[in-house]
Amino acid sequence: MDEKKEPKVEDIRAAAKARGCRVQQALYYVAGFLEGPMCGRCFPCSLGSFEAKRRLENIAGGRGAEADLIALKRIAGNMLEASMCKKGKDTARFLLEWLETEAFRSHIEGRCPEGECAALLEYRVVPAECTMCGLCLAACRHGAILGEQRKPFLSGYLPFEIRQKRCVKCGDCLPVCPEGAIEVVVAAEPAKVGD
Ligand code: SF4
Ligand code: SF4
Ligand code: SF4
After folding, report:
1. Which residues contact 17 (CB under 8 A, 6 or more apart)?
2. Could you tell me the distance, in angstroms and rounded to a whole number, from the CA of residue 101 to the centre of ligand 1?
């Protein structure tokens, strides 16, 4: 009978490294740990991993704050000290290694240096490149694009623009623009919940 082989923490960590962003690496690892090797027999590891995932989601989602960094360090410290087995202690070591990088602070300041955390990116129309064809307006299902298809003598020829508060960063507008006039840049301001 085929038994499903449980992934090892080292394998999950190695797979996490396919991402450039350290926050995404940590989030991928912790989610994989919770789905596989984490057995739930001791609280510092089981509760700590769930809480760490929630905090990492805050940071990757543009809602991160100093309190999340402090909590992650506390969680990793507790796991290192009190986890019952090597898997929990290794997880704590991985978390502490990731937390030592600058990436976490950059994220709570609103920047993902690797450009992998969608919540910390902005889609924008480059006004000089936009020919007002209206294809992006038709592609956007979220009502985030403002503009009027060019109609000689009837419109003011204003280039299209993206309303940041409505944009969910789905990327649907990018491939339809024939001019390559939509760019994805690191957000000037972190996205806030409810914006
Ligand atoms: S530290 Fe080990 S025993 Fe404890 S919950 Fe984690 S994997 Fe299970
Ligand atoms: S990224 Fe998605 S939501 Fe944002 S403007 Fe483009 S299509 Fe609309
Ligand atoms: S698809 Fe591109 S060129 Fe056409 S209106 Fe949108 S941004 Fe402008």
Report:
1. 25
2. 26
pTM (two decimals): 0.76
Task: Please classify residue 55 by burial: count the beta carbons closer than 10 Å to its beta carbon, then call 0-12 exposed, 13-18 middle and 19+ buried.
Answer: buried
Across-strand partners of 121? 186
**Overall CATH class of domain 118-186:** alpha beta
Q: What is the mean pLDDT of each run of 10 residues along the chain (195 residues)?
A: 74 95 97 96 96 97 95 98 96 96 92 88 92 94 91 67 90 94 77 41
**Which residue CA neighbors atom 8 of ligand 2 most closely?**
140
Burial of 140 (0-12, 13-18, 19+ CB in 10 A): buried
Cα–Cα distance, 30 to 136 (Å, whole number): 37
What is the rounded distance in angstroms from the CA atom of residue 61 to the CA atom of residue 77?
A: 24
**Residue that is written with structure tokens 């449980």 in the block:** 6
| Residue 137 alpha carbon, nearest atom of ligand 3 | 6
Query: Can you tell me the distance from the alpha carbon of 44 to that of 150, in angstroms, rounded to the nearest whole number?
Result: 61
- Collect all residues with Cβ–Cβ distance below 8 Å to 183 and sequence separation of at least 6: 123, 124, 126
In ligand 2, which atom is closest to the CA atom of 123? 1
